[in-house]
Amino acid sequence: MLKRFFNFHLDDVDPECFVTSSLCSPYALFYYRCGVFITSLTVMIISLSSLLLQQAPFFAWISAFTDLSWIGLVVYFGFSTVVTGLYIWRNGKTPSSKTFIFIHWSLYLLPAVYHWIVPVVFWAFLAPYVLKSSLASGPLTTFVTIVPHSFDWVFMFIEFLLNRIPIFYSQWYIPILFGVLFVVYVFYQHAVFSQYTSSPDGFWVYPFLDTSKPYAYAWYLGIAVYFAIIFLIVASLHKLRDRLRKGAVKSLREE
Question: Percent of the chain, pLDDT > 70?
């Protein structure tokens, strides 16, 4: 029972599903992934440059969940671009070791889930406050605020439509584990970075995570539930996508 609950399904997946598409050729998939990698890396560089121009401390960029998840996006598309390119170059041969599959799958799982979480939280709760200060700071700050909170979902949704990578419910612990690690990181930031802020409550990357506020831990519980719900939704969408594709293939064969 416990094994089933944590089963990563490494024996149940075709290694080619990571580098091929049901909708386009491996070449088209490669060009898409390469384009997103270059674009997302460029946005990351612009974001860092914006902070340098504002003479902001470096930890301001690596403290937010958005920025860390954007790094994950860059890493996934960079990694998948290389692997897809090698698949084409080696005439259809792809690494099949369980370790390699686990790494590639995990790198996909994180942005596949997190880049549904980030835009919803931002546009639903944070946008009215963050955009006001961003607009006052100029077009560059506005750009690096809006793009990571909107284009991330667009990139991952197109990737979801193109790829053949499945997600199983029993893989829940990968995105949840990294979510827990971020919470640990939040407390680390509070302990280390509070010396650089004039706030009497110290440094909290998000105000609602401030444990000195009433009902703060209700937010932590709510976030955990939200992560779990988003994962279930994303896994269900992958299962629906794969079911529809199998149904379409079956219909074509019967014709």
Answer: 88
Residue type, 86: L
Mean pLDDT over 145-153 rounds to 84
Among 111, 220, 97, 233, smallest CA distance to 163 is for 111
> CA 169, CA 233: separation in Å to the nearest integer?
10
Say how many domains are in the chain: 1
CB 33 within 8 A of CB 81: yes
Give the amino acid at 51.
L
pTM above 0.85, yes or no: yes
**Residue 220 in contact with residue 206, Cβ under 8 Å?**
no
Segments forming the whole domain that contains residue 68: 2-254
Is it the case that residue 233 has pLDDT exceeding 70?
yes
Q: How far is CA 106 from CA 33, 75, 154, 161, 230, in A?
A: 17, 11, 20, 18, 16
For residue 2, what pLDDT is reported? 66
- Which structure tokens are listed for 220? 């932590």
